[in-house]
Design brief:
The structure is a single chain. With 93 residues, this protein is an all-alpha fold. The chain has one domain. 80% of the residues lie in helices and 0% in strands. The chain contains 2 helices and no strands. Helix 1 runs antiparallel to helix 2. The chain starts with 13 loop residues before the first helix and ends with a helix. The N terminus is likely disordered.
């Protein structure tokens, strides 16, 4: 069977297409998740300086929870996509 590189390109392979889409979403989720963690740290520093009032504590908690919800699956899926691509490359696909 003849293997042409255009046949195996991401635009022609539904598995690689889906994998590329997942990689894009995980990248976005990673960025937003880490941004939320950064926000939580900044808010914590502000709260430490000005006092731990209810609204700022709520904002810290919400930032940490949303960041965790985004980051946990994004990190796992990101590693899965990289491993699958590495495996495909190693097998010459």
């Amino acid at each position: 069977m003849h293997h042409c590189s255009s046949v195996n390109s991401p635009s022609n392979d539904p598995v690689r297409e889906r994998r590329a889409r997942i990689a894009r979403w995980t990248l976005i989720a990673n960025r937003v998740g880490y941004l939320l963690f950064g926000l939580a740290i900044a808010l914590f520093v502000m709260a430490f300086a000005f006092g731990f009032k209810g609204p700022i504590v709520t904002a810290i908690t919400v930032s940490m929870v949303l960041g965790s919800i985004l980051l946990a699956p994004a990190i796992v899926l990101g590693y899965a996509v990289k491993a699958a691509e590495k495996d495909d490359t190693a097998r010459g696909l």
